[in-house]
């Protein structure tokens, strides 16, 4: 990797420096927009004691769910358990520490982390278990609780197209948490479907500027569907 060219040739190079007990921010929502190859590489590396920040934890046997199989994750900061039975099992047994955070609050905590804002106040969660142990203040007659920003040692992000400088575009709903995650990592690794040359992306269409991205790798994606529901109704 030289100059502005951030493309790396292997997953090992993409995650070089990742070690035990680090915090990893993972973009995506369920199985939509997840960095499949980078997650699989973390599994192969056997890195343990991880704190993982993600909306949820994939499904059993795929996505971030892979990292639960050998208990590589020590703590999840997420919005819900979702379709993952192993996540539920480890949560209820106390094997996995889980910090459940309202979805919008989680997105804002990541955005704040990327923007250098240490904390903010929100009305979401006031008077619920979410507020336990957090500072509460009154503004204009309404109660708000303080939420701290989130940053990570690594952020793993998935995009549709990117150039060699790391400028990228997300595709439709696969954008989800990826833009916020990309800004909040000390090292942000972008796994991309299609690599283009600088200048090929329309500047006004770029979602994440390359200034936030440290490494780019071209991946191959299975793109599993988390749940398929087929209607039995007659049309």
Structure report:
The chain is α/β, with parallel strands linked by helices and 235 residues long. The protein has a single domain (11-119, 151-218), classed as 3-Layer(aba) Sandwich (Glutaconate Coenzyme A-transferase), CATH 3.40.1080.10. The chain has 6 helices and 11 strands. The strands form 2 sheets. Strands 1, 2, 3, 4, 8, 9, 10 and 11 form an 8-stranded mixed sheet that branches. A 3-stranded antiparallel sheet has the order 5-7-6. Strand 2 (50-53), helix 3 (65-69) and strand 3 (73-78) form a beta-alpha-beta unit. The longest helix is centred in the middle third of the chain and has 13 residues, at 103-115. The radius of gyration is 18 Å and the shape is globular.
How many E-type strands? 11
Instruction: Give start-end ranges of low-pLDDT stretches.
Output: none
Over the alpha carbons, how many angstroms does the gyration radius reach? 18 Å
Query: What is the general shape?
Result: globular
- Measured as a percent range, the helix fraction is 10-25%
Task: List the quaternary state of the chains.
Answer: single chain
Question: In sequence order, what are the helices and strands, one letter per element?
Answer: HEHEHEHEHEEEEEHEE
C-alpha termini separation = 55 Å
Q: Hey, roughly how much beta strand do the residues contain?
A: 25-35%
CATH topology: Glutaconate Coenzyme A-transferase
What's the CATH H-level homologous superfamily?
Answer: Glutaconate Coenzyme A-transferase
**Averaging pLDDT over every residue, what do you get?**
95
Main beta-sheet strand count, sense and barrel state: 8 strands, mixed
Query: Structural class of the helices, strands and pairings?
Result: alpha/beta
CATH class: Alpha Beta
Looking at the overall shape, the CATH architecture is 3-Layer(aba) Sandwich
| Count of all domains | 1
Count helical runs.
Answer: 6
């Amino acid at each position: 990797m030289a100059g502005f060219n951030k493309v790396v040739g292997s997953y090992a190079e993409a995650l070089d420096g990742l070690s035990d007990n680090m915090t990893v921010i993972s973009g995506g929502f369920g199985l939509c927009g997840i960095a499949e190859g980078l997650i699989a590489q973390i599994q192969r590396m056997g890195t343990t004691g991880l704190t993982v920040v993600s909306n949820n934890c994939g499904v059993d046997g795929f996505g971030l769910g892979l990292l639960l199989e050998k208990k590589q994750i020590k703590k999840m900061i997420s919005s819900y358990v979702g379709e993952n039975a192993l996540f539920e099992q480890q949560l209820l047994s106390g094997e996995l520490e889980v910090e459940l955070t309202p979805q919008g609050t989680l997105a804002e905590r990541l955005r704040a982390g990327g923007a250098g804002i240490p904390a903010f106040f929100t009305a979401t969660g006031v008077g619920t278990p979410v507020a336990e142990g957090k500072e509460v203040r009154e503004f204009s007659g309404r109660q708000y609780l303080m939420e701290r920003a989130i940053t990570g040692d690594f952020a793993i992000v998935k995009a549709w197209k990117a150039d060699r400088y790391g400028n990228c575009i997300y595709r439709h709903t696969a954008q989800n948490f990826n833009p916020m995650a990309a800004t909040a990592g000390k090292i942000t690794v972008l796994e991309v479907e299609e690599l283009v040359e600088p200048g090929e992306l329309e500047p006004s269409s770029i979602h994440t500027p390359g200034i936030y991205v440290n490494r780019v790798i071209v991946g191959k994606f299975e793109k599993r569907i988390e749940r398929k529901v087929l209607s039995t109704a007659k049309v």
